From TrEMBL:
Domain FAD-binding PCMH-type stretches: 31-210
Protein name per its UniProtKB record: FAD-linked oxidase C-terminal domain-containing protein
Keywords linked to the UniProt accession: FAD, Flavoprotein, Oxidoreductase
Superkingdom as given in the UniProt entry: Bacteria
Organism: Arthrobacter citreus
Cofactor(s) in the UniProt record: FAD
Length: 451
């Protein structure tokens, strides 16, 4: 069947170059699969038409935003359609009095925040990729970001969704009010479902007040353990920072080498903290006192330096290096176990003879340890890397944590999902998937374990 003839007036691309470019996101690629075609939809009606065709023919559909995911949630499966929503990028409405916005899924996160700022508002979720990631992609993974500590993850800002189901049916979930408990919370169910239950084509989000004041503190510590202890000290002081990020010495050295900064000269670990709102100055003073008592060297950064520090944190994942086999993790543990877990990570790195750097959204216990080995070391090093990753998951779960705080399961993390969820829970999730997608055509092999 000629796909272009079956879907007239829709951008269907089967060129080798485009298929290769859209075959994976930024997650580790387990198997490189060739999609049947890449479709760039421009309207809800086109998405419905594609899904009706896919449902009739039993063709898998992999929804895609900007491709910035890091767990393989947008990896192509063999013979699938990659359904790109990047061209559905309109901000449909901003209602400042109601503090909400309606957007299409391809809207870039930063563009929404810029538009909202004209009304003294902001879109709170801010993943490190916020300049290039889409709001629809953020919804698919329930993305977090630096401001999670105070403003929560994407789910906390999503009020309503327009979703096209596997058979092409268009539904709307939720409401345009901040409160609403009519029926089951399908909006929350779709948020974080990684395109396995439906394709999100419209999003109504809650906007927050743009802070009248922001204070940025940089607290450098002689070691990582004391910096991690600072997180708990801030909590005991009963201050809720908007941002509380932890960077270790390896991360600072990498940032210095890449960007010409001098972070490592100031200490072996950094707590980067922002307070905001009318009480920002008072809260900053309390935080500085608490961290200084633990041996931190605390400085209050001016606006230019503060922006640079926050921007450096957003780049802390680093670019791919062809001489390294490197995997970044996304575990979360209760904040009270943060110090213990970081100590365990360093033990694992020593035991498995792998390199390690650690950054964390310390305010909510979400860590992004990155393990790596040199590719020149060959398969033996890759096995050591896998062993370190496996143990990092096992230890996090033993501490009451989770295998993913904000990046999603995707394809890559399926190997660990059964360690966190019992068969009863996994079976229930499969039944939910069957109810929404009985033919199993929506992003197969992602997010939940198959039978």
């Amino acid at each position: 069947m000629d796909l272009a003839l079956s879907l007239p007036n829709i951008d269907v691309d089967t060129s080798d170059e485009v298929l290769a470019a859209y075959a994976s996101d930024q997650g580790p690629v387990l198997d490189i699969a060739r999609p049947l075609a890449v479709i760039r939809a421009e309207s809800v009606a086109e998405v419905q038409q594609v899904l009706r065709w896919a449902s009739r023919t039993g063709t898998a559909v992999v929804p895609r935003g900007a491709g910035t995911g890091v767990s393989g949630g947008a990896h192509a499966t063999a013979g699938c359609l990659v359904l790109s929503l990047e061209r559905m990028n309109r901000i449909l409405e901003i209602r400042p009095e109601d503090e909400i916005a309606r957007v299409e899924p391809g809207v870039i996160n930063a563009d929404l925040s810029t538009a909202a700022a004209e009304y003294g508002l902001m879109y709170a979720p801010d993943p490190a990729s916020y300049r290039i990631s889409t709001v629809g992609g953020n919804v698919a993974t329930n993305a977090g970001g630096l401001r999670c500590a105070k403003y929560g993850v994407t789910r906390d800002s999503v009020l309503s969704l327009d979703v096209v189901l596997a058979d092409g049916t268009l539904i709307t979930t939720g409401q345009e009010t901040f409160k609403g408990v009519a029926g089951y919370d399908l909006t929350s169910l779709f948020t974080g479902s990684e395109g396995t239950l439906g394709v999100v084509v419209g999003i109504t989000v809650r906007l927050r007040y743009l802070p009248v004041k922001v204070c940025t503190l940089a607290a450098f510590f002689p070691n990582l353990a004391s910096a991690a202890a600072g997180v708990l000290a801030v909590g005991r002081a009963r201050v809720q920072p908007a941002i509380m990020e932890l960077l270790d010495g390896e991360t600072m050295s990498a940032l210095d080498a890449a960007h010409g900064s001098t972070l490592r000269n100031r200490g072996d670990a950094l707590l980067l903290i922002q307070t905001d709102g009318y009480g920002a100055d008072t809260e900053a003073e309390v935080v500085a006192s608490a961290l200084g008592a633990l041996g931190g060297t605390v400085s209050r950064e001016g606006s230019a330096e503060a922006l640079e520090l926050v921007d450096l944190r957003r780049h802390s994942r680093g670019d791919a290096v062809h001489t390294e086999l490197r995997v970044g993790e996304d575990v979360a543990v209760p904040r009270s176990r943060l110090v213990s877990y970081i100590e365990e990570l360093h033990r694992m790195a020593r035991d498995h003879r792998v390199r390690l750097k650690v950054v964390a959204h310390a305010g909510d216990g979400n860590l992004h340890p990155t393990f790596w080995v040199e590719t020149a070391e060959g398969s033996a090093a890759a096995l050591r890397l896998d062993a370190a990753l496996d143990e990092s998951i096992t230890v996090a779960l033993a501490m009451g944590g989770t295998i993913t705080g904000e990046h999603g399961i995707g394809q890559f993390k399926l190997r660990w999902l059964a360690q966190e969820q019992g068969e009863e829970v996994r079976g229930l999730q499969r039944r939910i998937k069957d109810a929404f997608d009985p033919a199993g055509i929506l992003n197969p092999g992602k997010a939940i374990l198959p039978r």
